[in-house]
Amino acid sequence: MADVQLQAVLAWFLDHHVAELYTEAIRNSIDYVLDGARTGRFDLRSPKVHPGERASVGAKLEYEVLRVFSLPKSKPLDTLVSEIPVDIKATIGKNWTIPTEAHCQLCICTQIDLTRNRHRTWLVRTHRSWLYRGAGNNDGKRGLAAQARDQWSVPLYDWTALPVNPLTFLTEEQADQVLAEKPGQVKRLLMMFRFLEGRIIPRNVILTVGAGNGDPMRRARQARDEAAEEGLTLLCGDWVESRDQAAARGISLRPGEWIALSDKQDEAGSVGGGTGSV
Question: Does 272 map to a domain?
């Protein structure tokens, strides 16, 4: 017999840009946990990030999903979709812990693969017969059997790339220099732009490099003149002129994003780069 509620929830989500919105929600959740503007951290896999913090990405993601899809927070589960109760789960591993109140209910299960910088999400009704046997953990939470996930869940979207934090492209030595306490912010931002020439730099990366210091964005703007002396043009998507200059080189630069381009580069050439944070 068809699961009418599952089909209704599925139809609601498929009327949205699900993968795109989930990418935004996951990126924001990871940025929130890393708290780069205060901690200088930029990689969730770093030993500087406690395992408990990595696990908390799922809890933050619940609220980000509600926000990006404009869904209400509603008991007895996490939200209502087409007036149907739905629970929201995420893992950075390979399974989810399904609480007792969500047994036999509709669950959205997201898997975040930090090694390959990607994510995917299913919609599934978590029948008790599809959960791992036993009493579960102390809260009665039980994992979803892999066979049930593979055979009875419905994909909301397949593997989708997560934006990569440009700082992860630095060598260990370069990262140590860029994130050091000295020299000052302008000098360290210049080093970053030099090391990451041609890569799009989101605003949160500027804040991470200036962690714990005052007004990193102002320091980035101050770096433009010194960069020009080195033969680098710094463009910022906040300025129409910069967006036009980037577009002339085949680059789409959004508000808040920066890029360093060599003055020697062919104006007709195109430059790519990752955005976002993982």
Answer: no
Q: What pLDDT does 268 receive?
A: 42
Consecutive H or E run containing 220: helix 216-229
The length of the chain in residues reads 278
Name the residue among 1, 9, 14, 4 with its Cα closest to residue 157: 14
Of 84, 85, 90, 82, the closest CA to residue 102 belongs to: 85
Residue with tokens 């933050």: 60
- The span from the CA of 110 to the CA of 155, in Å, is 10
Based on the fold, state whether residues 155 and 176 are members of the same structural domain: no
Contact 161, 117 (CB under 8 A): yes
- Residues of the domain holding 186: 166-262
What pLDDT sits at residue 149?
66
**Could you report the per-residue pLDDT of 183-227, keeping only the tens digit for each?**
888 999 999 999 999 999 999 999 999 887 778 888 888 888 889
| pLDDT higher at 66 or 220 | 66
pTM across the whole model:
0.83
Residues 128 and 208 in one domain: no
238-268 pLDDT, tens per residue? 999 999 999 999 999 999 999 999 977 544 4
Omega within 30 of 0 (cis) for the link into 155: no
* Residues 85 and 120 occupy one common structural domain: yes
Reply yes or no on whether the pLDDT at 130 is more than 60: no
Last residue of a domain, one of 118, 142, 161: 161
Residue matched to tokens 């924001």: 28
Parallel, antiparallel, or unpaired: how do β-strands 97-98 and 106-113 relate?
unpaired
Return the residue matching tokens 């020009």.
228
E-strand spans in the chain? 79-81, 84-91, 97-98, 106-113, 118-125, 142-143, 154-161, 232-236, 258-262
For residue 25, the one-letter residue type is A
